[in-house]
Amino acid sequence: MLNFEFHNPTKIIFGKNTIKELDRLVGKQARVLIVYGKGSVKKYGTLDKVKSALKGRDIFEFEGVEPNPRYETLMKAVEIVKKKNITFILGVGGGSVMDGTKFVNLAANYKGEDKTDLLKGEYEVESVIDMGMVLTLPATGSEMNCGAVISYGDGKFPVKHNLSYPIFSILDPEITYTLPKKQISNGIVDSFVHVTEQYLTYPVGGIVQDRMAEGILLALKDIADKTLNNPTDYEARSNLVWSSTLALNGIIGKGVPQDWMTHVIGHEITALYGLDHGQTLAIILPAVMDIRRKEKREKIVQYGERVFDIKTGNIDEIIKATRGFFNSLGLKTKLGDYGIKEEDIEKICNNLIRHKRDNLSETGDVTTPIIREILKKAF
Amino acid sequence: MLNFEFHNPTKIIFGKNTIKELDRLVGKQARVLIVYGKGSVKKYGTLDKVKSALKGRDIFEFEGVEPNPRYETLMKAVEIVKKKNITFILGVGGGSVMDGTKFVNLAANYKGEDKTDLLKGEYEVESVIDMGMVLTLPATGSEMNCGAVISYGDGKFPVKHNLSYPIFSILDPEITYTLPKKQISNGIVDSFVHVTEQYLTYPVGGIVQDRMAEGILLALKDIADKTLNNPTDYEARSNLVWSSTLALNGIIGKGVPQDWMTHVIGHEITALYGLDHGQTLAIILPAVMDIRRKEKREKIVQYGERVFDIKTGNIDEIIKATRGFFNSLGLKTKLGDYGIKEEDIEKICNNLIRHKRDNLSETGDVTTPIIREILKKAF
Q1: Is B255 close to A238, i.e. CB distance below 8 A?
Q2: CATH of the domain at B229
Q3: Of A154, A175, A196, which marks where a domain is finished?
Q4: Same domain, residue pair B372 and B282
Q5: What whole-number percentage of chain A has pLDDT above 70?
Q6: B284 min Cα distance to partner chain A (Å)
Q7: For position B154, what pLDDT does the model report?
Q8: Are residues B150 and B283 both part of a single domain?
Q9: How confident is the model at residue A83 (pLDDT cuts 50, 70, 90)?
Q10: What confidence score (pLDDT) does residue A302 get?
C-alpha cells in the first residue's frame, strides 16, 4: 500500500425530504446565491423547495450553467457574488452545476486579475465563501470532493483545491426520479469508471481498497437495470446516488495508484464532438483495457473474477463483459457509433498534445503512439 | 436505505515514516500534552520519534492510561491540561489511549463540576483543545471517529461527542510490528465485529453499504493469518491498519440499522472478569448469531455466502465458520474457556440491567430473557 493522506470534511445529508434541512445548515443572515442549470430544477419544483427552505435569507439566483460548464458563463456568476456581497453559494444541480459552483467560489476569491490562472493551476486562494450543494443528478461525485472540470476554448481543465470541498451536500434520491433515462445511464457509467480509474492499475497490495472498489462496482451492477427501468424504485435509486458519491470521495483511491486516462481522452472527445461524458467513457475504457492488457493484467483478471464472475482470466472475455454492461444501459462503445471517423484520431491526439495531456496512465508512459492505438481500438 | 448524515472531519496520514509529519501538523507555539499508556511506546522508541518531531514546542507527558481506561486515571491528566495551559493534546497509543485522550479533552473543557456527567451523557461542551493521535495498535477505529469507552466503577460507559473527532491521526503500520500476537488477534476480531455490528441486522436495501462491509470482512480474512504470523509483512499489516479504521469511521454504517449487542454484552464481561475486549467479542458474536438466527436470517445467509463462500444458507455452518475464523487467530469462543461458570450468567444480566443496557439489538427487543439465552449459548 502506498503512503497517503485522506481528509474529506464534507457533511452528507442523505435521504427523503432532506432539502428542508437547508434551514438548519445555512446561516439565517446569509446572502445566498443559488447556482443552477437550464431550468429543470424549476420545472420539477426543486428550486421552489430550496427557496422555501431558505426563507428569510436574501436570495439571489444564477441560472444557466450549461453541461460542461464554461468559463465565460461562470464569470457572470462571479460578478454577482461580488456585486451582491454574497456570503453563501449553493449549487443545485448535477456535476456541471456543482463543478461550476466550486469554480465561481474560487474565482470570486482569487485576487489575481486573470481568472484563467485557475485553469492553469497557477493561483493561490486563501479563503472562500461558505458553499453547499443540493444534488439532482448522481454521477460525478462532485458533491463530496474538491475537484471540478471547467471548459474553456476547446479544452476541459481540471480545477482542484482543498477549499473546494462543499461544507455540506444534500442528497435526496427522490428528486432524481424525473431525470431522463439517458442521464441515468451516463451517471452509472461515470460512477463505474470513476472506480475503475482508481482500481484498474497495477497491484500495490491495497487489499481493502480493492475490495471496497469492487463492492461499489458490484452495487452499481446490481442496481443498474432496476434504476434505469424503474426510476421510482427507492432502493435502487438510493444505492445509485450513494454509490456515485462513494466512487469519488477519495475513500477507495487512497494508497493505490490511479490512472485517469479514460477520463482525459474522453474529455477531448466531448470537447471536440459534443458526446456526453458518460458516452465517451463507455467507449474509451474497453479500448484502454485492451491496449493496456499487459500493464493492467493482474487487476483486470481480478476485476473479471470478482465483478463479472469470469474465472478464466481471459481478458477478451472480461472486456466483452464490460462492453456488455455498458450496452445493457443503452450506451454504445465505439467511436464510429457517433459518426466519428478514423481520420479524427489525429485531431484528438493533437488536442491532447496541445493541452499537455500526452503523458497518461498510472505510470505516465502512455504517449501519443499508444493513445493512437487506444483510439484505433475504439472503432 | 435509511436517511442519514455523515460527517467525518479527521485527516488521516497513513504510511511509513509518517510520525515526522507531526512537525507540519502541530502549531509551532503549541503547548503539547502527550498522553500514552504503560510504557511500550517508550520501550520501542515511538515516544522518542514523536518528541523529536515536536521539537521546539513545550512538551508535557501523561503516562499510564491503562487498558479499558479508567475515569480516575484520566482525571489526573485533566489536571495537567488545566495547570499547564495545554493547547494541544496528542494521544499516542491504541484504543484505550485514544479513547482516554478524547475524554481528557472533553472533561477539561466541560464547565460542570462533576465530570462523571460525561459518562451519563448529561453535559454540554462548546469547544475543545486541538487534538491528534498517533496510532500504535489497530483495533478500535478510535483514530477516526468521535467515540470513546470509559471505565468507571464496575461499568464501561460510551462517551460520544461531535467535538471528539481527532483533527488528524497518524497511522504508521511499521510501528505496530512490535505488538504481541495476542493484541493483533484481538484487533482483528474487534475490527471484524465492528463491521458485523453494522451489517448483521435486517435488510433495508443498503446494497452498497453491504458490499463495502463485506469488502472489509474479506480483507480482514485475507490478511489475518499473514499479519499474525509474519508481523513485518507490510502489505498484510497496512491492510489490517486501514481496515480497522474503515470498519468504524462511519462509512459502512450510515443508512443501515446497527446492533451493538455483542459489544455491550462483551463490555460487561470485561468489566466483571477482565477478559480482553476482543476475547469477549469472539465469544458473544457466534452466540448472538445463533439465538438471533430468525431476526438476522437474511443478512447472516448473505454474509455466509459472500464472506465464507457458504452457499447452502445453513446458519449452523455459517456460525461454525465464524468460530473457526476466530479460533484460527488463537482465540477461544466459549465463556467456559476462561473459567466463567453458568451461574455467572445472572451476574452479567444483573449488571446489564443496572447499567440500563437491557434493551439491546437493532430493534431494542432483546431484554434479559433473550440475553440469558445468548449467554447460555456462549458455553
Answers
A1: yes
A2: 1.20.1090.10
A3: A175
A4: yes
A5: 100
A6: 26
A7: 87
A8: no
A9: very high
A10: 98
Tell me: pLDDT of A120 over 90: yes
Which of B143, B175, B207 corresponds to the end of one domain?
B175
pLDDT of B145 reads 98
Nearest to A147 by CA among A299, A253, A242, A75: A253
Interface test with B, best of A210, A211, A235, A240 (most B CBs within 10 A): A211
Q: How far is CA B201 from CA A337, B221, B235, B290, B311, in A?
A: 47, 21, 31, 13, 19
Report how many domains make up chain A. Answer: 2
Average pLDDT for residues A309-334, to the nearest whole number? 98
Tell me the shortest Cα–Cα distance from A346 to chain B, in angstroms: 41
- Find the CB nearest A242 among B9, B14, B255: B255
Q: Residue B39's pLDDT is what?
A: 84
- Verify whether the Cβ–Cβ distance A211 to B223 is below 8 Å: no
Cβ neighbours of A308 (radius 10 Å): 18
Q: Where are the alpha helices (DSSP H) in chain A?
A: 22-25, 40-43, 46-53, 71-83, 95-109, 117-120, 181-197, 207-229, 234-246, 261-273, 277-291, 297-308, 315-328, 345-354, 368-377
Domain membership of residue B145 as a residue range: 11-175
Taking the C-alpha atoms of residue B120 and residue A197, their distance in angstroms, rounded to an integer, is 47
Q: Compute the mean pLDDT over every residue in chain A, rounded to the nearest whole number.
A: 97
- Mean pLDDT value of segment A347-365: 96
CA-nearest residue to B210 within chain A is A215
Query: Do A88 and A188 reside in the same domain of the chain?
Result: no
* Confidence at residue B182, expressed as pLDDT on a 0 to 100 scale: 97
Given an 8 Å threshold on Cβ–Cβ distance, is A251 in contact with B251? yes
Whether A160 and A203 share a structural domain? no
Q: Are residues B267 and B204 in the same domain?
A: yes
Which residues in chain B land under pLDDT 50? none
Question: Are β-strands A147-152 and A130-135 bridged in parallel, bridged antiparallel, or unpaired?
Answer: unpaired
Query: Is there a domain that residue B2 lies in?
Result: no
In a domain, B325, yes or no: yes
Confidence of residue A42 (pLDDT cuts 50, 70, 90): very high
As a whole number of angstroms, the distance between CA A61 and CA B66 comes to 57
Given the cut 0.90, state whether the ipTM is greater than it: yes
Q: Is A360 exposed, middle or buried (0-12, 13-18, 19+ CB in 10 A)?
A: buried
pLDDT number for residue A39: 84
Instruction: Based on the fold, state whether residues A110 and A143 are members of the same structural domain.
Output: yes
B377: closest CA of chain A, how far (Å):
33
B14, B211, B246, best to mutate vs chain A, most A CBs in 10 Å: B211
